[in-house]
Amino acid sequence: MAIAVFVSLIIFPIFATFDIENRFNYSLSKLQQMYVLIIQAFLCHDKTRSHMLLTKASIVQHMIEKALTPMQTRLADAKFEPSRLLQRLFNHQHLHVIDLTLQEQENLITSLMSHVSSLHLMVKNCSFNDFHHDFTCELQSSLLHLNSCQSNIISSFISSSSVTKDDFIYQVTNLQDAFSSLRSTYILAGLHRIEHVLQSATTLQSEDSLSHAFFLFHLEAIVRLLTQVTTNDNNRKNTINSKKNQKKKINLNEHFKLPWTRLLSAVKSMIIIGVGSIFILVPSLSKTFENGQLILITLCVTQGDTVGGAFTTMKMRLIGTLLGSIWAYITYLLAHNDTYKTMGILTPWIFIFSYLKLLPNWGYTAAVATFTPIAINLGRLPYGDALPGGNYVLLRIEESFVGITIAVILTLFIFPTFAIDLLKDNIQTTLKTCQQSIVSMHSIYDQLFHHDHSHESLIQLDLEEQKNESFISTQRNSFYSLINVQRTLVEHASLEPTFWWMKNAFSTKRYNILVQKQVHIYNMLHNIDATLIRIKEYSENIEHLQLNVAGGHLLPNLHRELSDLSRQLSDCFHLCTSYFILTQTRFHQLFRQCIYSHNKLISTDLAKHEQCLIDLDQTIHRLHVQHQIGLNRLLQHYLSRLSEDESGHSVISYTNSNEAESVFIAYYALYYSTTQLTQCVLTLGETVHTIFELETTHLYRHF
């Protein structure tokens, strides 16, 4: 152990801090690449071409998600390292540009991911009509200039070459000026479109106006994020100082309680190790399997938190053993008992698979393939010709196969914990997190606008705006941690024998869609919170804004609209959660929840869910109609003002006020987010409905 620690520290040390820094730089560069593809898709005049670019953006997004999956594990490992010192060594050329802690880096990536994913969803649902064509033509040059300035900022963050502080300040100023120019162009283009609509007596679709405002809102949010993380931003310095003064509460009950599930897992490990020890303690078995040590080792290292996780480890170990055994036999044929030749032949093999070990899809397989030929060839040398290499290779394969076979049986029949059950538990927790986000949305509204119904909120937030943003950031990190675990559990559940309790095979495709829809839902909830905070920056109370901006023709009673919608969405989340509880395996109910329920599917279950989806669809239609009526009322107000011989710039109030214009953009982004939130919940409900039918009915049985 001491030698291993010494070698790890002296010879090419790989710190978790460096790994996080590399993942941060990689994710930041790929997010910019994804951002560029989305901008190009938005500017396309052809829907097919746009969807091709969005497909490329989806592939890049999947690469980012893969890179971020082990981030929580790396952050936990980095707690044992001098992270800030290592960061300063790693980023010594960029400390005057960006100097974030590891947790702040994760916050930045997840926040950027949320905004860029929202842009992706908006462009995917965009209507490529004449209005969009004319609008993008006017915005194209400004958008491309903003894209270029933002690429320069990202390059300054992650490039190996250093940039001077003055040059970076110049880049930040250019980025802010580029967005100001884009916003002015957006306002001018909107003014031209409204004047055209009023003069030609045509109709302006609310979906077009709302989606474009939503797009601009997220562009501004990204610019603000990139500006705030720089070392020159005073607001960020104040935020860091305020965080240092916050004390973290320690819950002693969480540290010292003994969950029933952990006790069962400990008993299971004892039984598995005890069975493996039989092959060493019983003389006949020990003689047959060369002391039985490899069988015991296999049983020890293939244990997992779930059946699917253990099966994944077993599969990787078996493949690694086969690959390593093949090379071990080749090494024996070439080198026989010559130690130096043996080491010379093993060296390139060790180098290749040590490299492959760092790749996500190889990992443990490459590690086993690396040490297997070492154990076979070097372990055989003391015996010489008394134990031929071919026999030794076959013996190692036989021991691994026997160990894995026994591990499969013990894993399945001794207190089994199936990944599908933990996956459904995780989905329930994620949906409850979304429900809490809906509650926090009301709390943020009440705290920001001093609403009288603040006693309805279960989550109490501070009045300070920065604390609201800190709460949202913490909530977002918790959500993405659940999603990362959920993606892993989907992979593990696909290897389990689900035919024991499901009417059809496990649908990996459907569960992956479910994961993606949960992300979309949370992003929209986060967008609503962000728009409310932005509106608060320019308006002390929302009632004053509704009565005085544009003659009071904005949609009134926002609190009632959010309350009615959130109540309906919470009911849908609760219904989906109950379905995942209903379909838990009997093993999970008995060994994990200490209950044994005989709940079965009844005809009203699916009918109730179908009615919930029908109501959501009607809500989407109602929101579209409501927003269209509000826009028509606003246009009618402008038309009546124009009839009084006023100019277009004086009629449309936000063209002369940056604050009013920012409120309008945030307001429209809020309305678009509520509609898309309802649409995402509807799609999630349809996916859950299909999964429920697959698992509990015979509707989709194969021939």
How would you characterize the overall build of this protein?
It is a multi-pass membrane protein. Keywords: Cell membrane, Membrane, Signal, Transmembrane, Transmembrane helix. Its main location: membrane. With 703 residues, this protein is mostly helical. It has 3 domains: 228 residues, Methane Monooxygenase Hydroxylase, Chain G, domain 1 (Up-down Bundle), CATH 1.20.58; 151 residues; 278 residues. Helices cover 77% and strands 0% of the residues. It starts with a helix and ends in a 7-residue tail after the last helix.
Topology pattern, helix = H, strand = E? HHHHHHHHHHHHHHHHHHHHHHHHHHH
The helix count comes to 27
* Main beta sheet: none
Quickly count the domains: 3
Strand tally: 0
Overall average residue pLDDT: 79
Sheet-strand content, in percent, reads under 5%
- Unreliable residue stretches: 237-250, 454-466
What is the structural class?
A: mainly alpha
Distance between the termini: 57 Å
- Tell me roughly what share of residues is in helical segments: over 70%
Envelope shape: globular
The rounded Rg comes to 30 Å
Oligomer: single chain
Provide a short characterization of the protein structure:
The chain is 77% helix and 0% strand. It is mostly helical and 703 residues long. It folds into 3 domains: 13-240, Methane Monooxygenase Hydroxylase, Chain G, domain 1 (Up-down Bundle), CATH 1.20.58; 262-412; 419-696.
